[in-house]
Amino acid sequence: MANQPDTATVVAARAGDPAAIDRLVAGYLPLVYTIVGRALEGHADVDDVVQETMIRVLRNLGELREPEAFRSWLVAITVRQVRDRFRARQAGEHALLDPDLRDPGADFTDLAITRLELSGQRRETAEATRWLDEENRELLALWWLEASGELTRDEIVEGTGVGRQHAAVRIQRMKGQLETARAVVRALHRQPLCPELAVLIEPWDGRPNALWRKRIARHTRECRHCAPAWQDLVAAERLLAGMALVVPAPSLAAGLSAGGLGAGAGGGVKALAVKAGLSATQKLLATALAVTVAGGGAAAAYTLNEPAEPAVPQAVVAPSPATVSRPPSLPPSIAPTSKPAPSRTSASPSAKPAVPAKQASAKKGVGVWKFDGSKAALKNVGAGWYYDWAAQNDEIPGPAGVEFVPMIWGKQNVTGATLKQAKAEGDVLLGFNEPDMGGQANMSVEDALAAWPQLEATGMRLVSPAVAFGGDTAGGWLDRFMAGAKAKGLRVDAIALHWYGSDFSAAAVDQFLGYVDAVHQRYGKPIWITEFGLMNFSGSPKYPNDAQKVTFIKGATAGLEKRSFVERYAWFGLPAVGDSVDFGLYRDGDSPTEAGKAYRAAG
């Protein structure tokens, strides 16, 4: 959204300013293209619908009464154009266009995979979208952009024309279908292919549809060979968070009309100008704009670097902050292939003075995933300990004097080899990561209790499974686990918690510390807070501003340091690179964000 024009540009464009009109078209074309492309599943109609949408926007811009609501208005127009095309297809003679007749270059899933360089679970998720029902693809197009930070829930509600509660229910159903489709994609790509599945799909023509989605999904649930397809599915919100918009294909940027209304680099936007009834001067500027879009100039400078992917499903799968609906921005266990560009708010590396390392605090720690400068940042921030959601720290070695604490992430990691790795790393062992969350460890209390004796056999000090929420709730996951451990005579030496607050006011400090106190009062054991931070995963803004982060970090860490029963705490997380710039602490080894400076001063 940072590259999209502001309200002042909308006002100027509404008044007829040609340059503002140019900026408006260039700034919002990728958003419209992404919605339409995903909703129409890359159908050859995509270019036409995008053009029709932009023409309608330009023609009706003068009627927009509330410029600050331009994005919502644009999304609503886009959705109406998509629905009109759906209805025209269904009513037309060729309603069921054979997939072989589609423009192969317009397959939106392939474009997203190629242009965003998707791999692993992100690629699986993109491929799974082909299996969604038509009504869900429209909703997916909007929700995908919400998860990636390009749209808000209010804009989705406005665009779909349904109430907030109804929209939430529809999104939840769509997400369920998407998860099923992801399992289907996994099962079909597994090598060697399950022999029973091969027999089942023998009559299938290879084209995704609802009937075969249901048949293959049912098989995967019942087949021991295929059942792992449902395991270690990183929450779709996490996979989509921070992903860039897909910039329109050169053919669309250079000639939006499938009927050839323009030619050369400027033809498409010139065609828009002509059809929208713009002046000769505006047409000339629109031509210049088209050259900029087609040539990759500043007007369309959308990043195409995809956030790095969680390692799946080895010893670590990405942790998820505390509520089911949230899309935390960056999973741990990632390995960027190159150093990200500094944040636009950061000073030039050559201009900044070196920041001396902070003396380590025994309590203060961080969750770390791989990024350039991790070792230096761990020392600079003054962390006494860290973890990376894995049983060993081969990928992210820390500096001398900073303790690494291993974790047994989930049920699949309870093996002799993994436990041996963990025991070699130290004396303390963290239990399962968010076992109360689908997409995370996702374990029943019974499974956790059955596995716990193997952790206990290491002889290490044991910290409980870290629940995503409800640690102080009677009858909650943690409560039942602790009661079961007591009944079975199992040892739990400390309690682990995660907490994320969506209230960015000064009250967040007391909300957080009150939760920590309540959990301690319930179980009477030492407390480890292994993830905490401020994130609003169901509304906007998703993240606090710098001043709010600094206020929270100062108050929260001061309170944690004063509480003798709090043994350790860890901010989520150390890197402020890629799509974690809004909540991370360090851009590189010695470049703390404002939040990083506040956290560095703690302890």
UniProtKB/TrEMBL annotation:
<dbReference type="InterPro" id="IPR053183">
    <property type="entry name" value="ASL1"/>
</dbReference>
<feature type="domain" description="Asl1-like glycosyl hydrolase catalytic">
    <location>
        <begin position="379"/>
        <end position="599"/>
    </location>
</feature>
<keyword id="KW-0805">Transcription regulation</keyword>
<dbReference type="Pfam" id="PF04542">
    <property type="entry name" value="Sigma70_r2"/>
</dbReference>
<dbReference type="InterPro" id="IPR007627">
    <property type="entry name" value="RNA_pol_sigma70_r2"/>
</dbReference>
<feature type="region of interest" description="Disordered">
    <location>
        <begin position="319"/>
        <end position="359"/>
    </location>
</feature>
<dbReference type="InterPro" id="IPR014284">
    <property type="entry name" value="RNA_pol_sigma-70_dom"/>
</dbReference>
<comment type="similarity">
    <text>Belongs to the sigma-70 factor family. ECF subfamily.</text>
</comment>
<dbReference type="GO" id="GO:0003677">
    <property type="term" value="F:DNA binding"/>
</dbReference>
<dbReference type="InterPro" id="IPR013325">
    <property type="entry name" value="RNA_pol_sigma_r2"/>
</dbReference>
<dbReference type="Pfam" id="PF11790">
    <property type="entry name" value="Glyco_hydro_cc"/>
</dbReference>
<dbReference type="GO" id="GO:0016987">
    <property type="term" value="F:sigma factor activity"/>
</dbReference>
<dbReference type="GO" id="GO:0071966">
    <property type="term" value="P:fungal-type cell wall polysaccharide metabolic process"/>
</dbReference>
<feature type="domain" description="RNA polymerase sigma-70 region 2">
    <location>
        <begin position="24"/>
        <end position="90"/>
    </location>
</feature>
<dbReference type="InterPro" id="IPR000838">
    <property type="entry name" value="RNA_pol_sigma70_ECF_CS"/>
</dbReference>
<dbReference type="InterPro" id="IPR017853">
    <property type="entry name" value="GH"/>
</dbReference>
<keyword id="KW-0731">Sigma factor</keyword>
<protein>
    <recommendedName>
        <fullName>RNA polymerase sigma factor</fullName>
    </recommendedName>
</protein>
<keyword id="KW-0238">DNA-binding</keyword>
<feature type="compositionally biased region" description="Low complexity">
    <location>
        <begin position="335"/>
        <end position="359"/>
    </location>
</feature>
<dbReference type="GO" id="GO:0006352">
    <property type="term" value="P:DNA-templated transcription initiation"/>
</dbReference>
<dbReference type="InterPro" id="IPR024655">
    <property type="entry name" value="Asl1_glyco_hydro_catalytic"/>
</dbReference>
<keyword id="KW-0804">Transcription</keyword>
